[in-house]
Amino acid sequence: MSIENHSEPDHESPIEIIDDTNDMHSGPEPSHPSAASAANTPAGDKTMAMLCHLLSFCLFILPAFGNIIGPLILWLVKREQDPFVDDTGKEVLNFQISVTIYGLICFLLVFAFGLGVILGMILSVAMVVYTIIGAVKASEGVLYRYPCTIRFLK
């Protein structure tokens, strides 16, 4: 809390140091993303990882595979820049592909036994709940492993 009270004076000193470091390393900085300051990198990592989970809700905007397309785009853009986002993206994609397969099975079970309607509702609720849990864990910097997931990407 004392850091918050003195955030401006303390914050100015690290910014100057970071700015001096960035000026010195303006060329090689992209090749050393892990060498960035600890204060800036984890927050970006956590935010992008959380966004990767939350982009699964694109399913409600783009019903046909929106839950896969949203995280896939972010993962393809950020996977080489950050190992945490890479692992999170793979996990999210594995889960969303698995949910899509389970959803197709539920759809087929609707015609066979009518059981698919109940299973589909349970699957939908589970997808939303697990996605929110994954986003919260990612915001804490923890890699969340979804249950009942087929590991297509390793």
Amount of helix? 55-70%
User: Could you name the ranges where pLDDT drops below 50 across 5 or more consecutive residues?
Assistant: 1-41
**Count of folded domains:** 2
Structural class: mainly alpha
Biggest sheet overview = none
Task: Determine the mean pLDDT.
Answer: 77
Global Rg: 20 Å
* SS summary, helix count: 6
Pattern of helices and strands? HHHHHH
Tell me the total number of β-strands.
Answer: 0
The separation of the N and C termini measures: 41 Å
Percent strand equals under 5%
Shape: elongated
Biased composition (Low complexity): 27-41
Protein name: DUF4870 domain-containing protein
Keywords: Membrane, Transmembrane, Transmembrane helix
InterPro entries: MamF_MmsF (IPR019109)
Could you explain how this protein is built, in words?
It is a multi-pass membrane protein. Keywords: Membrane, Transmembrane, Transmembrane helix. It is found in: Membrane. The chain is 68% helix and 0% strand. By secondary structure, the chain is mainly alpha-helical. The N and C termini lie far apart (41 Å). The model is unreliable at 1-41 (pLDDT under 50).
Short description:
It is a multi-pass membrane protein. The protein is mostly helical and 154 residues long.
Defining traits:
154 residues, mainly alpha, elongated, disordered N terminus, DUF4870 domain-containing protein, transmembrane, MamF_MmsF, transmembrane helix, membrane
